[in-house]
Structures are given as C-alpha cells and as structure tokens.
C-alpha cells in the first residue's frame, strides 16, 4: 500500500515539507525544469522552492516544448524574457551545442519582465537535459559568481561552489532583485528544511 501523501508538497505525510515553506514576494518568474528522478527524491529542494515562490512553476521531464519557455502563464501577463540559470559550458565534442547569446544588460533593469529557467537535477542530469534541448542552449545565461559555500550537507556536491536548487535560485534572485529583502526567507526555508532532514535521520537511525 502507498503511504499517505501530503496533497500540497506531494511528499509522504511522515516527511511533509510544508513546515519549511516560507512564502516570498518576488517579481521574477521562476520555471523549474525537474529531472523525473528528482521528483520523488527526499533530498530534492526544487519542490520546496516552488512552494515558497508563488510566481513559479515546476515541469518534470527531460525534453521540453520550446514554446513553454516564453508563453505567458496568465492571459494578462506581459511578455517575459527567459534566461537560463547555468554556468558556462565547456566545449564537448560528443555533445555540440548552440552558443548561448550574451545576456542583454537592459533586461536586468526590469525584473518583472524576466523568467528564470532552472534545471533541477544533479550536474550530470542537468547537462543531459541541456544537451537534449536546443531551445535551452539558445537562452541567455545567468551564471553565479562568488557564491557562498553550500549548506546542503545532506547531499554530496562535486565542488564547493555547487549549490542546491533552492540555494542557487536564492543567489540568482538576490542578483536580479537586489532591493528585495523578502528573498532572505528562502535562506530560512533552507535552514528549516535542513533541520527537518536531520530530524528524520536521527529518528530513523536511533536505537
């Protein structure tokens, strides 16, 4: 029998994320493209990020319809500029890609016209998603520089600058909306999530 699940966070009721949610007012839309194997992963932060950001959507898959990157979410929405949160990609002879155009600086002056596209998966999975979707390759990119060390100790990173999805989006929104103090609540949500995960670990490993 399946364990009862929370209708909001879709996690098992015994591991519900909802207590860690911290709603954040934000101007930039966030589109999370989640690898299917991440959708049910207990340590994934993409679902928590979505619950914190009212102007966000999550789509699970590996290949995506290019139209969804730019189409309005609501009839009254103004057109949005889509940019990809991803570092520069080294050349790969086995996986040639379209060069990413430069990010127009004038876009950064209007956060309410931006849609931040985020690949939610391990680095290997996210690279495969990028290789499989030429429309993503053609998006201007936002790369994060001088990021703080990740607090995501419960899941292994390959380098100190690699962050969880929630942490990476928090850093990106701080750059895109520098005057928005509400973004700090994402850090609070991450801290609450970490405390919950530690609680589950000790509960499951106690004598």
Q: What strand order characterises the main sheet?
A: 2-1-4-3-5
Sketch the topology as an H/E string, one letter per element.
EHEEEHHEHH
Distance between the termini: 26 Å
Which whole number gives the mean pLDDT? 88
Our count of helices gives: 5
Number of strands: 5
- Largest beta-sheet characterization: 5 strands, parallel
Silhouette: globular
What features would you highlight for this structure?
alpha/beta; 5 helices; 207 residues
Note down, in words, how this protein is organized.
There is one protein chain. With 207 residues, this protein is α/β, with parallel strands linked by helices. The protein has a domain of 135 residues. The protein has a five-stranded parallel beta sheet. The chain is globular, with a radius of gyration of 17 Å.
Set out the fold topology:
Layout: E1 29-34, H1 46-52, E2 56-60, E3 81-85, E4 114-120, H2 123-132, H3 134-137, E5 141-142, H4 165-176, H5 184-205
Parallel strand pairs: 1-2, 1-4, 3-4, 3-5
Helix pairs in contact: 4-5
């Amino acid at each position: 029998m399946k364990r009862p699940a929370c209708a909001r966070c879709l996690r098992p009721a015994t591991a519900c994320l909802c207590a860690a949610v911290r709603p954040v007012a934000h101007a930039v839309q966030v589109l999370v493209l989640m690898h299917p194997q991440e959708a049910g992963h207990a340590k994934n932060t993409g679902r928590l990020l979505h619950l914190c950001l009212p102007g966000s959507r999550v789509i699970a898959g590996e290949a995506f319809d290019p139209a969804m990157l730019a189409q309005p979410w609501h009839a009254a929405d103004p057109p949005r500029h889509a940019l990809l949160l991803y570092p520069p990609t080294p050349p790969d002879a086995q996986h040639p890609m379209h060069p990413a155009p430069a990010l127009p600086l004038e876009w950064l002056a209007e956060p309410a016209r931006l849609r931040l596209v985020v690949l939610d998966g391990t680095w290997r999975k996210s690279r495969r998603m990028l290789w499989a979707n030429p429309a993503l390759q053609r998006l201007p990119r936002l790369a994060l520089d001088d990021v703080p060390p990740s607090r995501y100790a419960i899941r292994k990173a390959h380098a100190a600058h690699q962050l969880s999805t929630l942490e990476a989006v928090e850093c990106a929104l701080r750059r895109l909306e520098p005057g928005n103090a509400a973004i700090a609540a994402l850090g609070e949500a991450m801290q609450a999530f970490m405390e919950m995960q530690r609680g589950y670990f000790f509960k499951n490993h106690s004598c």
